[in-house]
Amino acid sequence: MIDNQEPIKKRTIRSFVVRGGRMTEGQQKNYDANWAFYGLELESGRIDYQEVFGRQSDVIIEVGFGMGASLAEMAKNAPEKDFIGIEVHPPGVAKLMMLAKESGITNLRVYCDDAIEVMANCLPEKAASGFQLFFPDPWHKKKHNKRRIVQPLFAQQVANVLKTDGYFHMATDWQPYAEHMMEVMEAQTIYENAAGKGQYYPRPESRPLTKFEQRGEKLGHGVWDLIYKKITL
């Protein structure tokens, strides 16, 4: 653990709201059909990446992948790497697994649980090569800012699952949240800004341009990427 940090079992402030009702019949069918291969259970406890994927590789963690199109594309485009997605929204998990199955993607696994619980109880320490957080809920209202997932404690928890030189890649289309991310991350002594202190990172080709972003670009909306590397103190 980092700086004698206590393991996190439960938190009182959540950074997400599980929206929507039950899955449709089709979503449930996809979920049930694909879970045995792609699904990982919180209750199973600490995993070993080599056992899960049957090989040694660079493992990338993504939290909050939505409906999964971007993560599926990344896994398909980088077969030499392995990916673990964490999402609380069951329809999104069902859709990602369906996309993976249809594309023959085998280097991907998924948790349908709270990321904080998974990080604390399931992911190996100091083993992942990358951690991705794309377009998290910005919680626009000031009174809700405390719900933003990017906080000092979360940055430390991410560092705990990253190996040295592993990266933490964030992206947001809400400038005040980008500025908040920057403020939090620049204060962390265990990270180094890959773009230079106080600088945003140009969108890497490895992060697919979503339809949402394409629409936003046409309307003149910005997107801010931040990449921080875990360093040895």
- The strand line-up of the biggest sheet is 1-4-3-2-5-6-8-7
At CATH's second level, what is the architecture?
3-Layer(aba) Sandwich
CATH superfamily: Vaccinia Virus protein VP39
* Unreliable segments of 5+ consecutive residues: 1-13, 15-20
Helix content: 25-40%
Shape: globular
Structural category is alpha/beta
The overall pLDDT average reads 89
Strand content: 15-25%
Overall domain count:
1
Q: Tell me the radius of gyration.
A: 17 Å
The biggest sheet, with number of strands, parallel, antiparallel or mixed sense and barrel status, is: 8 strands, mixed
Distance between the termini: 14 Å
CATH class, named Alpha Beta
SSE run: HEHEHEHEHEHEHEHE
Query: Tally the helices: what do you get?
Result: 8
Could you tell me the number of beta strands? 8
The fold-level CATH name is Rossmann fold
Family: Belongs to the class I-like SAM-binding methyltransferase superfamily. TrmB family.
Organism: Marinomonas spartinae
Region (Interaction with RNA): 143-148
Catalytic activity: guanosine(46) in tRNA + S-adenosyl-L-methionine = N(7)-methylguanosine(46) in tRNA + S-adenosyl-L-homocysteine
What's this entry about, in short?
This is tRNA (guanine-N(7)-)-methyltransferase. The chain has 233 residues and is α/β, with parallel strands linked by helices. It is built from 8 helices and 8 strands; from the N terminus they run αβαβαβαβαβαβαβαβ.
